[in-house]
Amino acid sequence: MKKMNRAVMGCWMAIALMVGSLGAQDKPISASDLLKDPAVTAAIDAAKANEAQAIEDDIRFCEVPAPSFMETARGELLKQTFQQLGLQNVRVDGAGNVLGDRPGAAATPHVVLAAHLDTVFPQGTDVRVTREGAILHGPGIADDCRGLAVLVGVVRALKQANVRTPGSITFVADVGEEGLGDLRGMKQLFNETMKGQIDRFVSIDGSGLGITNVAVGSHRYRVTFKGPGGHSFGAFGLANPIDALGRAIAKIADFQVPKLPKTTFNVGRIGGGTSVNSIPFEGWMEVDMRSSDPASLASVDASFHKAVDAAVIEENERWGSPRMITVTKDLVGDRPAGSTPDESPIVQTAIAVTRALGFAANLGEGSTDANVPMSLKIPAITIGAGGRGTGAHALGETFDTTDSWLGTERALLLTIALAQR
Description:
By secondary structure, the chain is an alpha+beta fold. 37% of the residues lie in helices and 24% in strands. The protein is built from 12 helices and 19 strands. Strand 4 and strand 5 form a beta hairpin. The protein is elongated and about 85 Å long. It starts with a helix and ends with a helix.
């Protein structure tokens, strides 16, 4: 207990230095002022004491299927939980995000703490969770059911300790973070539901205690090549959509991209055709391109368009049939790139909290809900939810709950710090 108290004292001393730089309107609150509030230390204790409940929440959330675009049932469970824990104005917005407010003494600063509802697994996946000692096994158990459990854990600790914050906090269980969900929940939140109302944003995603302050942007396309099709022998000589597809893939495979900033490309799925003895009338592929640098992403995107267009021309010329093969390039995913500077107050506050708890504060990059606010220049980061996860996006995903309470505690301390004036 003494060791814990020393960590807490160090944490609040570090946080007090950061709170003063968060754009204060009044005199910055000091560490001694914060530590005089017994509710703060009670919340800290509650975050650890409630970890068994957080683990149960992780399991019960995870066992409700929530593929992207089908998050309603899990969202309803989070809505009920928000209501049970006393959040105000609990509501569901136009995209399906579930929101609940915890008003502070003033409307600002307005902090949003979020975790995503959806998973990559299709409807019909067995989402039952099994336990093996401290290890939980189940699709989505870490990404992001653990984030949802921590989100609820912060609400519970604040309520139990009756913590009052100068600023207001909105808790969000959001839709559409994964895959072709294309951050639709965040786009709705920042462009409509809470447009102009969010001062600081924190997403809880995955496991560990990392801090993501660089947003990896991505462009995703479904490319469809079409032609007349016909019998493989009788109509031989027609231009072939799948041949055009192959030409495009070969060109993409030869792209040269920078290592720094890391820029990537991938043809992830292909399909088409009718039978082995038919010239296909259609062939398609799905392509993913990523970079944390908007200019690099734009460059590889331009190369992609040139490669596809050239493949169509070459296939038509090969068979002397101009315009026989056509192509459509549908943008099915557009995640903005961006960053929150290392020296920014929100990043430095997260670093101070993490280090005070005795851990290295590692900054990184990723594609998360924070991409949207970062692209809008709103102070934003993503934090891990504690514990240790393996096999994200795989049926064999696991979450090691050993000392996982640290993730809840870190999220709680960070939320309180960011809600200071």
